[in-house]
Write a structure and sequence with these properties.
The structure holds 2 protein chains of 2 kinds. Chain A is an all-alpha fold. Chain A contains 9 helices and no strands. A two-stranded antiparallel ribbon of chain B has the order 1-2. The chains are: A mainly alpha, B mainly alpha. Chains A and B meet through α1, α2, α3, α5 and α6 of A and α3, α4, α6, α7 and α9 of B. Chain A: It is a multi-pass membrane protein.
C-alpha cells in the first residue's frame, strides 16, 4: 500500500512536471496518467477505461494563460482507488471531483507563494547573484509544483481505499448515478469553454457541420477528425491559393507587355 | 565595452543556442505566478545569452538592466515561447553591438506585441486543435481497450510540439526582425488561425454530438417514448441544447467552480426523477 501510494505519487509528479518542463506534451492528461496507473497496478484495462472517461469529461478544459482548471490530480487518485478497491468506474468520477476542488485550492495557495519567489528573484538580480535567480526558477519552482502534487495524491491513495469502501457502503445508489450524470454535464461545460475561445459568427457554421455530420452519420470521432483536417486543408487552399493564381495571371500579362518594347 | 562578449556570443554554436531556446520554451511554466506569470522562466531562457554577452565585471550594470528587462510580464504558449526567445536573443545581440543606436525598449515592445497573437494561435493550436484531435482518437481507441490509444495520442502531441518549438526558436533567432515584418505583411497569423479554427470546430462539433450520450428515459403512458420523438426532430438534440446552455453560462462569466458544483447537484436531482440519464 505504501509502495502503491509512493509510486502513484511519483506518476502524479511526472504528469505535473510535463506541463511545467515539457511544454505540456499531454503526459499530464487523464488518458495518459490513468493508463500509467493501470500499468503499474497491473490492471491496464481499467486504467484505460477510467482514463478514457476522465479524459472525455475534462476534454474541453483549457488553460488560457492563467493556471487552468483541470482534473488531472483527481483522475489519478480516482483511477488508483477504483483499481485498488475493485469499485465501479463511476467511483473515479465521484473521487475526482472533490480532489479537483482541493487541487485548485492548493494551486491558488502555491501561486501566492510563487509571487514572493518572483520577488526573491528580483532581489537576487539586483544583488548581482544571477545564479541564484536562475536556480530559484528552475529548481525551487518545479520542486514546489512536485510537492503540491505528491503529498495530496500520496495521502489520498494511502488512506483513500479504506475510506472509499466505507463511503461506498453508505452512499445511496441514486447519488452515485446522479454524480455520473453530473460529471457528464460538466463535460458540456468543458466543450462550451473550448467553443467560446474558437467560435465566432463567421466560422460557427463549421461547428454545426461537425455536429450534424456526427449526429447523422454515426462516424467515429477518428473519422470526423480526419474529415475535419481534410476539410480545413481544402478550404485553406481555396481561400489562399486562389489569390496567388490571380497574381500569376496578371504577372504573365505584364511580361508580354514588356516584350513589345 | 562588450566586444569580447559579443564575440563569444557570435561564435557560440547555433545548435547549442537553439537548444537553449528550445528548453526555455518547454520550461516556460516552472514558476508561474499571478503577478508576472511566466516572467522568471523567460529570464531563465534568455539568461545564458545574456551571460555570454556581458561576461566582464564592467558589464555588471548592463547585465542587471537586461536581466530586469527579461523579468517583465510574460505569457505565451510554451511551444511558441522558443520563437520569442530566439528573436529576443537576436535583438539582444543587436543591442550589445549598437548600444547607442538600438533602443532597448524595442525588445520589450516586440515581446509584448508577439505575446498576444502567438498565445492565441498557440493555445488554439495545441490545446484546442492538436490535443482535442489526439485525445479524441486516443479516447476512442482506449474505450475499445487498446493501449494504442494513449500511445497514438502522445505521438501526435509530440510530433506537433517538438518541431514547432525547435524550428520556432531557430527561426526567431536566424531570421530575427525580418520575421516580424513578414508575418504582419502576409497575414500569416490570420491564415494559420483560419485553418486551425475550421479543423478544431468540426471536431468539437462532432464531440458535442457523440462523446457524451445523454438521453431522456421519460415514457408517457407506456407508449410514447420521448427520446424517439426527440430523435425524430434531430438526433443528439439534448447534447446540442446542453452545449447551448453551457455556452451561455460561459459567455456570462459564471465562475467554473459554481458551474461544476451545480452540474453535480442538478445531475443528482435529474437522475433521481428520471428526467435525464447517461
Amino acid at each position: 500500500m505504501l509502495l502503491n501510494a509512493f509510486v502513484i505519487g511519483l506518476i502524479a509528479v511526472f504528469g505535473r512536471l510535463d506541463s511545467r518542463m515539457l511544454g505540456r506534451l499531454n503526459f499530464e492528461r487523464p488518458l495518459i496518467t490513468c493508463t500509467l496507473v493501470g500499468l503499474f497496478l497491473g490492471d491496464l484495462k481499467t486504467g484505460l477505461a477510467v482514463g478514457a472517461s476522465m479524459e472525455m469529461v475534462s476534454l474541453g478544459f483549457m488553460s488560457i494563460g492563467a493556471s487552468g482548471f483541470d482534473m488531472n490530480m483527481g483522475s489519478i487518485v480516482g483511477c488508483a482507488i477504483v483499481i485498488m478497491t475493485g469499485s465501479d468506474i463511476s467511483t473515479a468520477l465521484a473521487i475526482a471531483t472533490p480532489m479537483t476542488l482541493l487541487s485548485t485550492l492548493i494551486e491558488t495557495g502555491a501561486d501566492i507563494l510563487r509571487i514572493s519567489m518572483t520577488h526573491m528573484i528580483d532581489s537576487s538580480v539586483e544583488a548581482g547573484n544571477f545564479k541564484r535567480a536562475k536556480t530559484i526558477n528552475i529548481v525551487w519552482g518545479p520542486m514546489l509544483y512536485s510537492i503540491c502534487y505528491f503529498i495530496p495524491v500520496f495521502i489520498a491513495v494511502y488512506f483513500g481505499a479504506d475510506l472509499i469502501n466505507l463511503i461506498n457502503d453508505f452512499i445511496p445508489e441514486f447519488v452515485l448515478n446522479g454524480v455520473t450524470l453530473g460529471a457528464n454535464l460538466v463535460a458540456f461545460f468543458g466543450f462550451a469553454m473550448l467553443l467560446s475561445v474558437i467560435i465566432n459568427k463567421k466560422n460557427a457554421i463549421f461547428f454545426f457541420f461537425g455536429f450534424a455530420l456526427a449526429a447523422y452519420s454515426g462516424l467515429s470521432l477518428t473519422g470526423i477528425a480526419i474529415i475535419a483536417i481534410i476539410f480545413a486543408v481544402i478550404l485553406y487552399q481555396l481561400k489562399y491559393d486562389n489569390n496567388s493564381k490571380v497574381q500569376t495571371a496578371d504577372g504573365s500579362i505584364d511580361e508580354l507587355d514588356e516584350l513589345d518594347d | 565595452m562588450s566586444k569580447k562578449g559579443l564575440e563569444t556570443q557570435r561564435n557560440y554554436p547555433l545548435r547549442k543556442k537553439c537548444k537553449e531556446f528550445f528548453w526555455g520554451g518547454w520550461c516556460m511554466q516552472t514558476l508561474w505566478n499571478y503577478e508576472r506569470q511566466m516572467n522568471t522562466a523567460f529570464m531563465w531562457g534568455i539568461s545564458k545569452t545574456l551571460d555570454r554577452l556581458y561576461p566582464d565585471p564592467e558589464d555588471l550594470e548592463k547585465k542587471k538592466e537586461r536581466y530586469n528587462a527579461a523579468l517583465e510580464f510574460f505569457n505565451i504558449t510554451p511551444q511558441c515561447g522558443a520563437f520569442v526567445l530566439g528573436l529576443t536573443a537576436a535583438m539582444e545581440e543587436e543591442y550589445a553591438e549598437h548600444p547607442d543606436t538600438f533602443n532597448p525598449e524595442m525588445i520589450t515592445n516586440v515581446k509584448t506585441a508577439l505575446m498576444g497573437p502567438l498565445s492565441g494561435i498557440g493555445d488554439s493550436l495545441f490545446q484546442g486543435t492538436v490535443r482535442i484531435i489526439a485525445m479524441s482518437i486516443g479516447i476512442s481507441l482506449a474505450q475499445k481497450g487498446s493501449i494504442l490509444g494513449p500511445i497514438i495520442a502522445m505521438l501526435i502531441s509530440f510530433a506537433v510540439s517538438f518541431p514547432i518549438t525547435w524550428f520556432g526558436g531557430k527561426l526567431g533567432y536566424v531570421k530575427g526582425q525580418e520575421v516580424i515584418r513578414q508575418i504582419s505583411e502576409n497575414n500569416l497569423m490570420d491564415k494559420v488561425m483560419y485553418g486551425c479554427s475550421i479543423a478544431g470546430l468540426i471536431v468539437v462539433g462532432g464531440m458535442c454530438a457523440t462523446l457524451v450520450n445523454i438521453t431522456t428515459p421519460i415514457v408517457y403512458n407506456e407508449t410514447l417514448v420521448l427520446q424517439d420523438v426527440l430523435n425524430g426532430i434531430m438526433p443528439c438534440l439534448i447534447p446540442l441544447c446542453l452545449t447551448g446552455i453551457m455556452y451561455y453560462f460561459v459567455k456570462k462569466g459564471v465562475h467554473p467552480i459554481v458551474i461544476v458544483i451545480s452540474c453535480f447537484v442538478v445531475g443528482i436531482v435529474l437522475n433521481y426523477f428520471g428526467i435525464l440519464a447517461v
